[in-house]
Amino acid sequence: MAMQLLAASLLTSGLVRFFSEHAQRGASQLLMTAGAVGPIPRPPVAAMDCWRPALDDVERISWGRPAKRKGTGSRGVPHRLNAEERILFDLSRTKGYVEIAGSGWRSQRSDSPLVNTYRNWCDARGVCAIFLHKGREVDEVLVDLSPLRTPDEFENAAHFCLSQSASSCGRLQAYSDERIRAPTVEQTGRSSVNNDDEADVSEKDEFTVTSDEIVRARAEDYLTAPIHRLPMYTISWERPRPEAKALAKFLAELLSTAVEKKGRQKALGGPQVTPGKGRRHGGYGIG
Questions:
Q1: What is the pLDDT of residues 264-284, one digit of tens each?
Q2: What is the pTM of this model?
Q3: Are 74 and 184 in contact (CB under 8 A)?
Q4: Can you give the residue ranges of every domain in the chain?
Q5: Which helix (H) or strand (E) holds 172?
Q6: What percent of the chain has pLDDT over 70?
């Protein structure tokens, strides 16, 4: 009997030692494989020690009122929303992304006020801006990383988004193909009206240089300039409508772009009354 117990004990200890060594080898091989593939992308982090607009000013200029802080808006960049855009903007706060019909271009303003306002609002909060551009056949989901104001980390943030299985196969537009608007007299504080030739050359150079080149030369502006004067760094996906909405919702949760709903919850919607106790009148009524 004693010999049987001793044999069972030795067998058990041997099995434990075998599985322990096997697990250690498996863990080391997993770490070596991960190191060979490359470092895991880090979640994007926004810069805090930089210029950002106040949420109150973003709200004010969206109604057409002047901002308290200079530089939040610009006369050349429309931010005032109409009634339809106001509804979409209010919904975007809790959804974490904004739905736009097409590009959101409004011919009366020769620009897209909803895109400008939502990007400004995301800049004030220090989160990525997620747009869902609705098309006829397919929709485009676009993530703008510029509100993070960390140009050195844009590439890592993009890899973090593309490394997720639900958001893979995206297209990284290393800085949007859009041209940066030429600084106005209001922004620069000086006028070039006295020299028309020099002004023409300056405007031509400003509009022919790509935003990628401008960002490399103006990395410091990401810490000091308003968002409407900075180029976009975008990731885009083209999906059918149901898949596009699911992707936008996933990215909003991944990047924490939504604002939690405020107000009384359903469970707290009515007064908490204990039936038949501490009541002036009995029964099921309140009074």
A1: 555 544 455 555 555 555 555
A2: 0.66
A3: yes
A4: 55-179+194-255
A5: strand 171-173
A6: 58
